[in-house]
Design goal:
CATH superfamily of the largest domain: Jelly Rolls
Number of domains: 2
CATH topology of the largest domain: Jelly Rolls
Structural class: alpha+beta
Shape: globular
Helix content: 25-40%
Oligomer: single chain
Strand content: 15-25%
Number of helices: 8
Order of helices and strands: HHEEEEEEEEHHHEHHEEH
Protein backbone atom coordinates (compact mmCIF):
# COMPACT_ATOMS: atom_id res chain seq x y z
CA UNK A 1 0.00 0.00 0.00
CA UNK A 2 1.39 3.39 -1.01
CA UNK A 3 1.78 5.78 1.90
CA UNK A 4 0.43 9.29 2.10
CA UNK A 5 2.71 12.20 1.26
CA UNK A 6 1.89 13.62 4.70
CA UNK A 7 3.81 10.75 6.28
CA UNK A 8 7.01 12.09 4.70
CA UNK A 9 6.47 15.80 5.26
CA UNK A 10 7.69 15.70 8.88
CA UNK A 11 11.10 14.24 7.94
CA UNK A 12 13.57 17.11 8.30
CA UNK A 13 16.02 15.59 5.83
CA UNK A 14 13.39 15.65 3.07
CA UNK A 15 12.04 19.11 3.84
CA UNK A 16 14.04 20.72 1.03
CA UNK A 17 12.63 18.48 -1.67
CA UNK A 18 10.00 19.67 -4.11
CA UNK A 19 6.44 18.32 -3.77
CA UNK A 20 6.84 16.19 -6.94
CA UNK A 21 9.97 14.60 -5.45
CA UNK A 22 8.20 13.75 -2.20
CA UNK A 23 5.24 12.42 -4.18
CA UNK A 24 7.58 10.10 -6.05
CA UNK A 25 9.12 8.84 -2.81
CA UNK A 26 5.69 8.29 -1.26
CA UNK A 27 4.67 6.23 -4.28
CA UNK A 28 7.48 3.75 -3.60
CA UNK A 29 7.46 3.82 0.22
CA UNK A 30 5.93 0.98 2.21
CA UNK A 31 5.08 0.71 5.91
CA UNK A 32 7.13 -1.76 7.97
CA UNK A 33 7.26 -2.65 11.66
CA UNK A 34 9.95 -4.02 14.01
CA UNK A 35 9.66 -5.60 17.44
CA UNK A 36 11.78 -4.38 20.35
CA UNK A 37 15.30 -5.76 19.92
CA UNK A 38 14.81 -6.58 16.24
CA UNK A 39 17.56 -5.34 13.93
CA UNK A 40 16.72 -2.70 11.37
CA UNK A 41 20.25 -3.03 9.93
CA UNK A 42 22.27 -6.12 10.94
CA UNK A 43 25.89 -5.83 12.05
CA UNK A 44 28.35 -5.95 9.16
CA UNK A 45 25.69 -5.67 6.47
CA UNK A 46 25.25 -2.46 4.47
CA UNK A 47 21.69 -1.09 4.46
CA UNK A 48 19.51 -2.46 1.70
CA UNK A 49 16.78 0.14 2.08
CA UNK A 50 16.17 3.56 3.52
CA UNK A 51 13.97 3.70 6.62
CA UNK A 52 12.17 6.79 7.90
CA UNK A 53 10.96 6.24 11.46
CA UNK A 54 7.37 7.20 12.21
CA UNK A 55 7.11 5.66 15.69
CA UNK A 56 9.53 4.39 18.35
CA UNK A 57 13.28 4.63 18.91
CA UNK A 58 16.18 2.78 17.27
CA UNK A 59 19.79 2.68 18.45
CA UNK A 60 22.91 2.75 16.32
CA UNK A 61 25.27 0.40 18.14
CA UNK A 62 28.96 -0.31 17.88
CA UNK A 63 30.26 -3.58 19.31
CA UNK A 64 33.78 -3.79 20.78
CA UNK A 65 36.15 -6.73 20.32
CA UNK A 66 35.16 -7.91 23.80
CA UNK A 67 31.49 -7.86 22.80
CA UNK A 68 30.39 -4.77 24.73
CA UNK A 69 27.80 -2.54 23.11
CA UNK A 70 28.16 1.22 22.81
CA UNK A 71 25.22 3.30 21.61
CA UNK A 72 26.56 5.93 19.23
CA UNK A 73 23.27 7.66 18.56
CA UNK A 74 19.52 7.17 18.84
CA UNK A 75 17.21 7.55 15.88
CA UNK A 76 13.86 9.14 16.71
CA UNK A 77 10.58 9.53 14.79
CA UNK A 78 10.92 11.47 11.52
CA UNK A 79 14.62 10.59 11.22
CA UNK A 80 16.36 8.49 8.58
CA UNK A 81 17.99 5.13 9.20
CA UNK A 82 20.41 3.92 6.53
CA UNK A 83 20.86 7.07 4.41
CA UNK A 84 24.12 5.56 3.06
CA UNK A 85 22.09 2.92 1.21
CA UNK A 86 23.27 4.22 -2.18
CA UNK A 87 26.97 4.29 -1.22
CA UNK A 88 28.45 0.94 -2.22
CA UNK A 89 31.93 1.62 -0.84
CA UNK A 90 30.87 2.34 2.75
CA UNK A 91 31.57 -0.50 5.18
CA UNK A 92 29.04 -0.98 7.93
CA UNK A 93 30.72 -1.68 11.27
CA UNK A 94 27.58 -0.98 13.30
CA UNK A 95 24.06 -2.25 13.64
CA UNK A 96 20.75 -0.53 14.19
CA UNK A 97 18.24 -2.19 16.54
CA UNK A 98 14.77 -1.24 17.76
CA UNK A 99 14.62 -0.02 21.38
CA UNK A 100 10.84 -0.40 21.41
CA UNK A 101 8.24 -1.24 18.82
CA UNK A 102 9.26 0.70 15.73
CA UNK A 103 7.22 1.67 12.73
CA UNK A 104 8.86 3.10 9.65
CA UNK A 105 8.50 3.88 5.98
CA UNK A 106 10.82 1.75 3.84
CA UNK A 107 12.13 2.60 0.37
CA UNK A 108 14.34 0.05 -1.35
CA UNK A 109 17.70 0.90 -2.88
CA UNK A 110 16.32 0.16 -6.34
CA UNK A 111 13.36 2.50 -5.88
CA UNK A 112 15.60 5.26 -4.48
CA UNK A 113 17.72 5.06 -7.63
CA UNK A 114 14.60 5.27 -9.78
CA UNK A 115 13.37 8.37 -7.95
CA UNK A 116 16.88 9.86 -7.86
CA UNK A 117 17.20 9.77 -11.65
CA UNK A 118 14.20 12.06 -12.00
CA UNK A 119 14.83 14.03 -8.81
CA UNK A 120 18.60 14.41 -8.15
CA UNK A 121 17.80 16.52 -5.08
CA UNK A 122 16.97 13.25 -3.30
CA UNK A 123 20.56 12.01 -3.77
CA UNK A 124 21.88 15.27 -2.32
CA UNK A 125 19.47 15.02 0.63
CA UNK A 126 20.74 11.52 1.42
CA UNK A 127 24.37 12.67 1.19
CA UNK A 128 23.69 15.56 3.57
CA UNK A 129 22.05 13.20 6.05
CA UNK A 130 25.01 10.82 5.93
CA UNK A 131 27.29 13.77 6.70
CA UNK A 132 25.05 14.96 9.54
CA UNK A 133 24.95 11.55 11.18
CA UNK A 134 28.73 11.20 10.95
CA UNK A 135 29.11 14.57 12.69
CA UNK A 136 26.72 13.49 15.45
CA UNK A 137 28.60 10.23 16.04
CA UNK A 138 31.97 12.01 16.01
CA UNK A 139 30.77 14.58 18.52
CA UNK A 140 29.39 11.82 20.73
CA UNK A 141 32.72 10.01 20.74
CA UNK A 142 34.67 13.23 21.37
CA UNK A 143 32.39 14.16 24.25
CA UNK A 144 32.77 10.70 25.76
CA UNK A 145 36.55 11.07 25.82
CA UNK A 146 36.79 14.70 26.95
CA UNK A 147 33.83 15.47 29.24
CA UNK A 148 32.97 14.20 32.70
CA UNK A 149 29.98 11.88 33.16
CA UNK A 150 27.66 14.56 34.66
CA UNK A 151 28.26 16.74 31.59
CA UNK A 152 27.67 13.85 29.17
CA UNK A 153 24.50 12.79 30.95
CA UNK A 154 23.21 16.36 31.16
CA UNK A 155 23.79 16.82 27.43
CA UNK A 156 21.88 13.63 26.67
CA UNK A 157 18.93 14.58 28.87
CA UNK A 158 18.88 18.03 27.33
CA UNK A 159 18.69 16.56 23.85
CA UNK A 160 15.65 14.50 24.85
CA UNK A 161 13.88 17.14 26.96
CA UNK A 162 10.62 18.55 25.65
CA UNK A 163 11.10 22.22 24.88
CA UNK A 164 14.86 21.91 25.37
CA UNK A 165 15.45 24.83 23.06
CA UNK A 166 14.33 27.23 25.80
CA UNK A 167 15.94 28.20 29.11
CA UNK A 168 13.00 26.91 31.09
CA UNK A 169 13.35 26.78 34.86
CA UNK A 170 10.35 24.47 35.21
CA UNK A 171 10.60 20.69 35.01
CA UNK A 172 9.66 19.07 31.71
CA UNK A 173 9.36 15.38 30.75
CA UNK A 174 11.56 13.62 28.23
CA UNK A 175 10.11 13.46 24.75
CA UNK A 176 11.07 9.75 24.69
CA UNK A 177 11.75 7.60 27.77
CA UNK A 178 15.30 6.37 28.40
CA UNK A 179 16.26 3.55 30.76
CA UNK A 180 19.31 3.79 33.03
CA UNK A 181 20.93 1.07 30.94
CA UNK A 182 20.45 2.93 27.65
CA UNK A 183 21.69 6.18 29.18
CA UNK A 184 24.79 4.39 30.44
CA UNK A 185 25.52 2.90 27.01
CA UNK A 186 25.08 6.24 25.26
CA UNK A 187 27.35 8.24 27.56
CA UNK A 188 29.94 5.48 27.97
CA UNK A 189 29.58 4.91 31.71
CA UNK A 190 28.57 2.00 33.89
CA UNK A 191 24.93 1.64 34.87
CA UNK A 192 25.64 2.08 38.64
CA UNK A 193 27.69 5.21 37.97
CA UNK A 194 24.93 6.61 35.74
CA UNK A 195 22.37 6.02 38.49
CA UNK A 196 24.65 7.75 41.00
CA UNK A 197 25.04 10.79 38.74
CA UNK A 198 21.27 10.94 38.25
CA UNK A 199 20.89 11.01 42.02
CA UNK A 200 23.42 13.85 42.23
CA UNK A 201 21.55 15.76 39.52
CA UNK A 202 18.34 15.28 41.46
CA UNK A 203 19.97 16.66 44.59
CA UNK A 204 20.97 19.75 42.61
CA UNK A 205 17.47 20.29 41.28
CA UNK A 206 18.38 19.44 37.67
CA UNK A 207 16.21 16.31 37.44
CA UNK A 208 13.28 14.82 39.29
CA UNK A 209 13.22 11.03 39.25
CA UNK A 210 10.20 10.29 41.42
CA UNK A 211 7.33 11.43 39.25
CA UNK A 212 4.17 9.94 37.83
CA UNK A 213 5.33 11.22 34.43
CA UNK A 214 8.66 9.45 34.61
CA UNK A 215 11.96 11.30 34.68
CA UNK A 216 11.57 15.10 34.64
CA UNK A 217 14.40 17.49 33.81
CA UNK A 218 15.06 21.21 34.18
CA UNK A 219 16.59 22.49 30.91
CA UNK A 220 18.15 25.65 32.38
CA UNK A 221 20.18 23.71 34.93
CA UNK A 222 21.22 21.03 32.46
CA UNK A 223 22.47 23.77 30.14
CA UNK A 224 24.49 25.27 32.97
CA UNK A 225 26.17 21.93 33.64
CA UNK A 226 26.95 21.43 29.94
CA UNK A 227 28.30 24.96 29.49
CA UNK A 228 30.32 25.27 32.70
CA UNK A 229 31.15 21.63 33.42
CA UNK A 230 30.07 21.61 37.07
CA UNK A 231 27.04 21.17 39.31
CA UNK A 232 27.31 24.55 41.00
CA UNK A 233 24.62 27.10 40.17
CA UNK A 234 24.49 30.88 40.53
CA UNK A 235 23.60 32.19 44.00
CA UNK A 236 19.89 32.35 44.68
CA UNK A 237 18.77 29.62 42.28
CA UNK A 238 18.59 26.97 45.00
CA UNK A 239 15.59 28.78 46.45
CA UNK A 240 13.54 27.93 43.36
CA UNK A 241 10.79 25.37 43.75
CA UNK A 242 11.82 21.88 42.74
CA UNK A 243 8.33 20.67 41.95
CA UNK A 244 7.08 20.32 38.40
Amino acid sequence: MTVSIHSLSACRSLSGLTPPARDAIAEHAREVEFRSGERLIPLGQPPQRLLILTEGLAKLVGVSISGHERILCIHRPNEMVGPSVLMDSIENEHEVAAMSRVRALAISRRDLLIVGRSHPSLIMALAREVSRQLVVMTERVMTATSAEVPVRLSQLLLEFAEGAGSDRESFVPLAHPLTHESMAQIIGASRPHTSTVLRDLEGRGAVQRRSGRGLLVRPSRLKHIVEYGDLDFPAGTESLQLSA
